[in-house]
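Thread: DUF8052 domain-containing protein, structure

OP (GT): Posting the sequence first so everyone is looking at the same thing. Length is 186 residues per the record. Can we get the structure tokens written out before standup tomorrow? I want them in the notebook alongside the other entries.
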Amino acid sequence: MGAASDKYLKELLRRYSANFDITEDYALEGKVYPAYAQFFSLGEKYVLKKEAIIWSIRAYEHVLFIKTDSIDEKLLSELKMTMEQVMEPVLVRKGNKYPEKDHMCSYLTFVIISDTTPAPQVQKLIKSFSFDKGYLFNFRGHTEGRLGCVFLDSRNCVTNKAAKELKTLLTNNLKSLDGDKEEKVS
């Protein structure tokens, strides 16, 4: 983990800061991550005045950033365990049995910045990574796990299916560091 990963993370956090609240050197259950980004959206429908709410929805995204020399099967299983046993109970349910009323969805995202490209079988595991949990038959919403991995040596990135729209951001961030033109995102 060197200057290249620091530079990539700094630029990525700058891009995230437009819509997310960023905390650097974030500690979660005893482990420190280089950064944490949180997004919250509230949507409401009401009649005549704001006190007469017909419905309300809350959507969240929690992003933990990781810098590493390499990605292997052990790291991926640790991330899955962290998502299930730490992020979901602490960040989504906040220690309760279910998320708050009007919770629609929460995305739990890991962005891994790796100095080296992993083996093809590990890239396959990244693409098949999944985490999905519903609450009260989805009446209290659901939580979905997203994983985006950037490989600085090959200037490539791989995501799981849930994070496919994240790939454009990660790729554009690589291109901006190289001084290339970015793709237009519609």
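GT: Both are above now. Quick notes for whoever picks this up: The longest helix spans residues 73-92. The chain has one domain: 3-44+55-178.
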